[in-house]
Amino acid sequence: METNNYQFTQVPTNLFILLDNNCRSMLFTLIQLSSFYADEEGWFFRTWEDLGAEANLSLNLCMATIQTLFNEKLIEARPVGFGKGKKPNYYKVNFANFEKYEETSIEDAIKNPDIKIRTVDYKGSNFKLNLVREVVNETVNNVVKKLVKSENNIDNINNIDNAKNVKNKENTSFEEKEINNCNTPNTYKDLMEHFLKEMEKRCKDKTVEELNEIQEALKAELNEFKHIPNYKNVFPYFIKPSIEKKKEKLLDEIFDESEIFATA
User: In the prediction, which pLDDT does 25 show?
Assistant: First the structure.
């Protein structure tokens, strides 16, 4: 076989046939950039301006195609800024999700309009860029309630009351007595309420960058509560989703519609 002496980018044929021209251009650009710049976890960054130049798309179409690819779970994205400034967004191509499109024949991909992947309608007033994954089928509050219920279940061996009953009350250590007698949260529910108050206090009137710092600080502070069973679950199921929602709301407020809905 003849060896190629030029650079080329490997792309999934079936998927590319299914994509419209705009999404195809954007996904090709992201795949090519990923091959050069992605870190060990697959993430790389680009500004909107640079991404538009490399994909040969306007700012509006950049946002619309990124939203489309995100909706189809072909990429992940971490938004930092929405305007025409120099702040980058972080991207990751979900290469593993390409495989399911191999089940479609090339002929169907070409001829069947019902399976085509089209750019979202970005010209209507209802379009809003949203690059935050929601908890599947459950709100954060429902997840929290289920976790608290599980922790407090009398049949749960990790229930703090059951854990205490395993030991003879007369042999309770001095350290445990100190924990029970101070204001430190002693149960999973107490811990949730503690961090809810901390977030309400610390997150008010903060920037996205400051919220990121607060999120990491709260994650580190969780280590102070190792005496509570499954204390680590508070971060992924409560702290992180709650702060992500605050960041999303903040980004919506600074969203400049005059830039976003300019004519493509």
Answer: 96
State the sign of the Cα–Cα–Cα–Cα dihedral 194, 200, 80, 31: positive
Name the amino acid, one letter, at 136.
V
Q: What is the Cα 261 distance to its own chain's centre?
A: 25
With tokens 């949203």, the residue in question is 130
CATH 1.10.357 fits 13-131, yes or no: no
pTM comes to 0.52
Instruction: Evaluate whether 234 touches 166 at the Cβ level (below 8 Å).
Output: no
Token pair listed for 6: 């030029």
The two tokens of residue 148 are 């608290």
Listed in order, strand segments (DSSP E) in the chain are: 43-47, 75-78, 88-93
pLDDT digits over 216-253, tens only?
A: 999 899 888 888 887 888 887 778 888 888 887 777 66
Largest CA distance in the chain: 82
- Size of the chain in residues: 264
pLDDT at 84 over 80: no
Residues 165-175 pLDDT 10s: 544 444 444 44
CATH 1.10.10 intervals, the chain: 13-131
Q: Which of 100, 82, 37, 27 is closest to 258 using CA atoms?
A: 82
User: Nearest 5°: CA angle at 151, between 145 and 154?
Assistant: 115
Q: In what order do the strands lie in the sheet with 43-47?
A: 43-47, 88-93, 75-78
